[in-house]
Amino acid sequence: MNRNILSLFLFLSFFTVFARNEAPLGTVRGTIRDEKTKEVLIGCTVRIDGTQLGVTTDVDGNFTIANVPAGTQKIVISYISYKTKEIPNVRVESGNTTVVETELTVEGQALQEVVVRGNRATNTEIAVITEIKQLKPIAVGISAQQIQKSQDRDAAAAIRRVPGVSIVDNRFVLIRGLAARYNSVLINDVITPSTEVDTRSFSFDLVPSNIIDRMIVYKSGSADLPGDFAGGVIKIYTKRRPEQNFLDAGLTFGYRNNTTFQNVQTQASSGLNSIGLWNASQQVPTSFPATSAAFNALNPLQRAAYARLLPNTWGLQQATVSPDIRFALNMGRRFDVGNVRISNLTSINYATTNQFSNIDLKLYDNGTIANAVTQQYNDVNYARQTRLGILHNWSARFSPAFTLEWKTLYNQLSTTETVIRTGAQVADGYDVRSYSERFENRSILTTQLAGEHTISPLTKINWVGSFGYTGRWEPDWKRARYLRATGATGSDGQPAPFLLATPNDPTPTEVGRFNSKLHEYVISAIVNGEHTFGNPTDREPNKIRFGVYTEQKNRDYSAHFYGYQAVGGASAAKQRDIATIFAPENVTGSDGSFSLLDGTRDRDAYKGINTYLAGYVSGDVYFGPNASLTLGFRGEYNDQGIKSNVNGVETRLVTNKIFSPLPSLNFTYKLSEKTNLRFAYSSTVNRPEFRELAPFNYYDFNLLADIQGNTTLTTAKIQNLDAKWEFYPSANELISVTGFYKHFTNPIESYLLFQGNGLAYTFTNAQSAQNYGVEIELRKGFQNSASAFLQNLSVVGNVSLIKSQVNVGDFVKAPDLSGTIQQYDIRGIADTKRALAGQSPYLINAGVYYAAPNSGWQWNILYNIYGQRIFTVGNSQNPTVYELPRNVIDLNLTKQFSKKIEVRVGIQDLLNQAVRFAQDFNHDGKIGSDVTSQTAGADQMVRKFKRGSYFTASAIYTFGRRTVIP
């Protein structure tokens, strides 16, 4: 495998050298200043006339244009409110650098009288590095330009290139080793709701990469950032308005090893499922009695009559998996209505993807013998996902002092998952065959109206009004389990038939149909202001920032579970296969057939209400030209409540009203124009989510576990310290080293209940925790190299070393299986001290990028790995489970043909190493290399599967020609 990787790298290197334009090339660099003040100008556009070569000046007013054809060139420099300048007859020599130092003259009109027709670039690597350098908090980021180079399909794949960031389940982000619950995610400066019902997390795969302008990850707090975080605040900015008119379309085909063109078994689907919707046949009829008491009071014949109203869709179909398909249509338009510049950006994305996995799953008797298996299964898992996404943004620039924007992002998603489980309950002497047939539908909408106002040269105001909606439906999740005695045979000597397990009382672990629905509405209003004291043209003017943030969130969740009941012995009926066992003639309620029972409880429905009010103020204090201090204070009031039925009466079970004072401090000292030292302190919080508080009990079929909320959870408090050294050798280069320390009071952690049968998790407040580490980041280019090949090469890498420890305490307060709150003494039962759940001791990301603009070729090699991290917290009966490291290598190649066609090919997860989960049998806080061995004290593999390497081929076509707007 290593030889193959080396061969691919050498091939790409040779191919690039062979394919690039061999015409003599040189470099042009320089600095642009204001003619009068001599201040450097940031964001000037510098281009070589008659070519596609051009850049913007960085924070120091510098620019570098590589690969300029040798000869005499004309340089054109433009900047808002300045006269465009042309410099003819600039001599460019092959292999040499030509230096241009020049100044721009202000237009004859005052700035407030100039009609602005351009926008500062924000989506390039230089722009993001410049933004990070100017920010007061400690931050890192990734630009649309780098995402395009990496060919990352969505925000989840792109953000793992950022220092200190890792990804769980290809969707959820961990920052500095802290679980997704410790992140705050904003889209266009508005807090996003959790996209998951059972955890606090945002699914980053919902945001296609082609709509991203940039992503900034704040590692330290400041007054203008939400206070509910410990890992980081992630701001996703979607593209705002186009710089030119365009219309392009892209089509991608994907092939995955072990999935594409394989024969699989899957459940029936309707035509609406292909666009993420469900139809009337995939839901419980409205004629069913509303309560379980009313339903179960009926006799078996009556209940069976209702059961026959449910479609018999249990049968599985054979299918051949088609290649994945992704389609994107993007359009940008700019036009004037009088003196108002109108811009529109629209992006439509559709994707159908497939994933097949053969999963080895084991549970153990954790006594004195290692690897004494009690349950052993093979899960054949096939999932088909669809996504329809729409980005629709309008912008109206009425004047340089007033801009109005309307931004809408909508995602419609569905997952059709079929699991066939075969194996044995070894300890009980049973062979097992189980089925899970699930369809999930989600709708996520966020729409915003935003305004930017320049009240005066000294005062600016911006505001946002936002509405968000999240809907999630599981209309008919079917589950069934067949059993037979291991080794049992019939009278004919053949293996005995499997019999459907039908308990007397409905339970989610056995046969039945589960459905749920969730509606969540979020209304937000935000106002931010900034006032500059003194002369706004000063290099470091004194500023004060202030603002308010209000949010009202309402969630309504309900679930129903119906379990099948055997009437009489029903031995013959129980032997039928999954396709025919619930045929109408077999569900009559008479002796020897099936009826239905309603297993729904009052706590299977809840309402969540949350009112959030925040205000902040911050200001800058300058100690000469090299030192600045930003002091801030943010006050947050949060009123959180949970309502649920208790004995048929809606009762408020949770009332959490808390005011959190959150001071922050950010200090920057400039060692030189290219080197900074930063120090930061902030106080933040971490609030429980609705699902973590709700007493609802949810069964996870794939993990064989129950998950239940805890109404006694309280808000965690975190103290954060950061220190960073950063060096900017050039506009697109960076070297930085960051150290951090965090102390938690009452951190929220998952807790495994100690019980004799099965796995049951809840959430608890531990006493305290700490998390500390160091991050190193490098971005290196070779623009000044004499080699044209090296001029086109750049290297990006980062390493994070992290350590954490949580002190759970001797006692925890948590619900038992009935939902009753108990005080548990965990001494001798569970670890009272361990690493934080989800924390990786190390993270490594690296990438080599090559881009030759004259030839249109680009390629890159990307690498990622994380250290073993706690997946689920355990106890003496069921030890803690860790997710083990896996090396991931991606390769990508792009070719631009003229200005209309771009072709991309890529290989993701080239090594295809197994995803592995192992439990810490010897309780030493890590998984040893002897995992799965039979020696005493060996750790145990509990789950293992391969996703398969993923091959993609894309084509993007631009219709007509891109029209540049002056």
Automatic annotation (TrEMBL):
The signal peptide, as residue positions, is 1-19
User: What SUPFAM superfamilies would the database entry show?
Assistant: Carboxypeptidase regulatory domain-like, Porins
Start and end residues of each TonB-dependent receptor-like beta-barrel domain:
447-909
Q: Which residues form a coiled coil?
A: none
Q: Which residues cross the membrane?
A: none
The TonB-dependent receptor plug domain sits at 138-233
Give the protein name, as stated in the record: TonB-dependent receptor domain-containing protein
